[in-house]
Design a protein that fits this description.
356 residues, binds UDP-4-deoxy-4-formamido-beta-L-arabinopyranose, alpha/beta, seven-stranded parallel sheet
């Protein structure tokens, strides 16, 4: 069985992907610095798996490590070889992801995202581990019109976060060109991941005031925030609010499993893949769906457009569907139900964050 390294595996998407891979029987090493997560998340994955497989602990190892620490990361690979279980592939989630923070603190973003990734790729190359699934973002695309965004749409990130993702994509592409026989690279551009694991044990846990729409909605629903600000009612859409392509985080996790399987079957490849649903939802539709399926009220006010926002961002996901043998199948209703179930649980969990 392959051993997979998951960087940033304690975070939102990483923890869901790790739980899916564990469920499928993979052997995992998670490295995370906890800059934007908590050990508690890992505990929750463990709780989940005790119920499924008592021996799951033999298949998961966690190491607290910043991916910019060359020696520590190198040791992770070396010790794995010494144990007779070399790391064959990497899913690279670790990085900072706030657009507004990246504008305020650009050096932190270039350092964590770009230098961290270069360090990881160096260590991978040393150990001849050349299979990687990378977390890129739809944020690398330029302004969209009404068309679905294909992988060859205009690339034009608008902030340091998006630019850092684009640079990492370019570095990965240059690695592939340097050794086309051996590097196998799936560059996944996620659209808007929301929702949570259906167990309610893992989900998104943003620090401070959420800047993304969905966690803000769930925090209004639970009473942590009094109302939602809807950014703009004059967008050229059916109800005047902006359209995004929301994808359930477990569908996204399944996309990673499919991408790994796909890379295994290839001789050397670099491929860009959109992970989205190809379905657009307005802000108002998301709010109304959340209220309906969860039988609650989300008070909101319209405010001005948020600088840097676009009217519509929806994936053309045909390429991923065609080549990955993958399809997102959880609808907006499911995303709202699972996200709300998690939010109701997270309050209790947060009380115990102090323990760590
Ligand atoms: P997250 O912040 O929840 O998870 C990232 C994890 O990486 C965290 O656990 C954090 O502690 C860890 N980390 C950060 N810097 C690190 C470092 N230098 N060394 C080790 N660990 C480090 O974010 P997420 O939503 O799970 O996103 C995962 C990846 O997907 C990120 O690279 C993000 O840019 C990308 N992405 C996210 C979204 C989204 O909307 N959530 C959309 C597109 C792309
Ligand atoms: C969605 C819609 C807002 C908050 C961001 C990043 C992108 C990617 C995903 C990482 C927009 C509106 C939001 C609020 C609102 N992340 N909104 N009130 O902007 O599509 O993408 O997250 O890679 O890089 O840019 O997502 O959830 O912030 O916003 O009205 O309080 O909701 O204007 O139309 P976005 P979002």
């Amino acid at each position: 069985m392959n051993r997979i390294l998951i960087t940033g595996g304690a975070g939102f998407i990483g923890s869901h992907t790790a739980s899916l891979l564990l469920e499928k029987g993979f052997d995992l090493i998670i490295v995370d610095s906890f800059v934007n997560s908590s050990k508690l998340f890992l505990e929750k994955i463990f709780t989940l798996f005790k119920k499924i497989d008592e021996k799951y602990e033999e298949r998961i190892k966690f190491i607290e490590c910043d991916i910019r620490n060359f020696n520590k990361l190198n040791n992770v690979f070396q010790e794995s070889i010494n144990e007779g279980k070399p790391i064959n592939s990497v899913i690279h989630f670790a990085g900072l992801k706030s657009v507004s923070e990246s504008v305020e603190y650009p050096l932190q973003y270039w350092d964590a995202n770009v230098n961290g990734s270069i360090n990881l790729f160096k260590v991978m190359a040393i150990h001849n581990c050349k299979t990687i699934v990378f977390s890129s973002s739809a944020t690398v695309y330029g302004t969209s019109d009404n068309k679905l965004l294909t992988e060859d749409a205009e690339i034009k990130p608008k902030n340091p976060y998006g630019e850092s993702k684009l640079i990492i994509e370019k570095i990965l592409n240059s690695l592939y060109i340097s050794d086309k026989e051996n590097w196998k690279i799936a560059n996944l551009r996620y659209f808007n991941p929301i929702g949570a694991h259906e167990s309610g044990l893992i989900g998104e846990c943003p620090n401070g005031v959420p800047s993304n729409l969905f966690p803000f909605i769930t925090q209004v629903a639970i009473g942590k925030r009094s109302f939602l600000k809807v950014y703009g009612r004059d967008w050229p859409t059916k109800d005047g609010t902006a359209i995004r392509d929301y994808i359930h985080v477990m569908d996204l996790a399944e996309g990673h499993l499919s991408a790994l399987n796909y890379l295994e079957s290839q001789d050397g490849i670099f491929t860009n893949l959109n992970l989205g649903t190809s379905k657009g939802t307005t802000v108002l539709e998301l709010v109304r769906t959340f209220e309906k399926v969860n039988n609650c009220k989300i008070p909101f006010d319209y405010v001005d457009r948020r600088p840097g926002d676009v009217a519509i961002s929806v994936a053309d996901n045909k390429k991923a569907i065609n080549i990955l043998n993958w399809k997102p199948h959880r609808n907006i209703e499911r995303m709202c139900i699972d996200g709300w179930f998690w939010e109701k649980n997270v309050n209790d969990l947060k009380l115990t964050f102090d323990k760590f």
